[in-house]
Amino acid sequence: MPGVEVVERFAFINCKALTDVECGKLEIIRELAFSGCESLRSIDLPSARIVEGKAFNYCEALTDVKFDSKLDRIEEEAFCYCTALERITIPLKDDMITADDIFIRCDNLKHVDLVEGAIHKIIAALQLEEWRNDVNEEIDSINQILPIASAGRWVYDVGDKARAIRTWIRSVLGKIIHYQAEHQRLLDEDIATSLQLALSQDIVMNNVLPFLELPSYTFEVGGDQEE
């Protein structure tokens, strides 16, 4: 579907022969758009921002879902009864997982991958190895939690997998923000002071400090998106 930015409600409902979805420009998937596509095996949606309720529910062959950094919101029951779903790739954004029932009956969902990009660059640039290790361990922790988290059996159940992912996102963000502040504190109080003792201030400010600063990144805390 080249050039398509919105898939409307019911657009492909019960298209039982549909096996793959790759839409580079697709931004919004409306409610029930791909519901019941029982042969759909994978989804690669690099431009998707919003996945509305039940958009992919009952896609029973779906194993792998890939989003990119533009994803802002996944709504209720979006992947409900995707019983073969094993892995999902998402960005690190608070309030992106909007409901507890997104992954009801997704008992095989055991892996979450983070979208590659600015977050990984920030982690790699943290001053101390123990900080980097702590954040990376927290990132990997979701893949130990999900296999034992309950997916829930019925709609309106409490889905522990969705809750676990939401809690994990907030925990990882919290650690990154904390260590980012600590990195800056060390830079300001220790590293900059030591360098200024050996070099003139102009040399430090213009030629040294820029290479010690962390990559810039705006942490998103969720919010309503215009549709």
UniProtKB/TrEMBL annotation:
<protein>
    <recommendedName>
        <fullName>Leucine-rich repeat domain-containing protein</fullName>
    </recommendedName>
</protein>
<dbReference type="InterPro" id="IPR026906">
    <property type="entry name" value="LRR_5"/>
</dbReference>
<dbReference type="InterPro" id="IPR032675">
    <property type="entry name" value="LRR_dom_sf"/>
</dbReference>
<dbReference type="InterPro" id="IPR053139">
    <property type="entry name" value="Surface_bspA-like"/>
</dbReference>
<dbReference type="Pfam" id="PF13306">
    <property type="entry name" value="LRR_5"/>
</dbReference>
